[in-house]
Amino acid sequence: MTTESDAAADSRSRREREDARVRELIDFQEGRLRLPVLGADAIGDLFRSSPRIAMLGASSNPMRPSNDVFRYLVAAGYDVVPVSPTETEVEGVRAYPTLAEAVAATGPFDIVDVFRRPEFCPDHAREAVAAGARCLWLQLGIVSAEAARIALDGGLSVVMDCCTKIEHARLVGR
Where are the beta strands (DSSP E) in the chain? Predict the structure, then answer.
């Protein structure tokens, strides 16, 4: 049974996590994290040379941003594989519960596109490094300096706080 003090502690913990997330996002946007992320030219080159994308946090719910981005990228000609432990398929494409299972079943990925909260991103960065991906891409509003350092140390390029759909449309077009 949850007591009032447990509920208050949970609420305080959630607020602290959200405050830390917002601080890191602002620090990144203002250049204080000093992480070497890809710029527009390199992102355009990445799209032109990266046909395979693993989408972590993909959803079959058409109201979720990941579903919209998934449909856009598939329509743009990319081989996008959904990765989610709660989905069996997204838009008719089989989903895999982990990145490792997706790689084992379908082959390596160029980009690991992450639609997950920042606190999960370091583990996803480790998965992307282990999978031999070329780039860890954290979606719009998602920043994790720890995940970026893991990916960079593992030889991956990094994009953070950017939407693959928006950047593709802006830099490459449909």
Answer: 52-56, 79-83, 89-90, 93-94, 111-114, 135-138, 157-159
Angle at 70 between CA 67 and CA 73, to 5 degrees: 150
Amino acid 12: pLDDT: 86
Express each pLDDT in 84-136 by its tens digit. Answer: 999 999 999 999 999 999 999 999 999 999 999 999 999 999 999 999 999 99
More confident residue, 91 or 8: 91
Q: Which residues constitute the domain of residue 2?
A: 1-34
pLDDT of residue 142: 95
Length of the chain: 174
67 and 132 inside one domain: yes
Work out the number of other CB atoms within 10 angstroms of the CB of residue 28: 21
- CB-count exposure of residue 41 (10 Å: 0-12, 13-18, 19+): exposed
How many independent structural domains does the chain possess?
2
Are residues 22 and 87 part of one domain? no
Shared-domain flag, residues 24 and 87: no
pLDDT at 1 over 80: no
Distance CA 168, CA 161 (A): 14
Indicate the DSSP class of residue 33: S
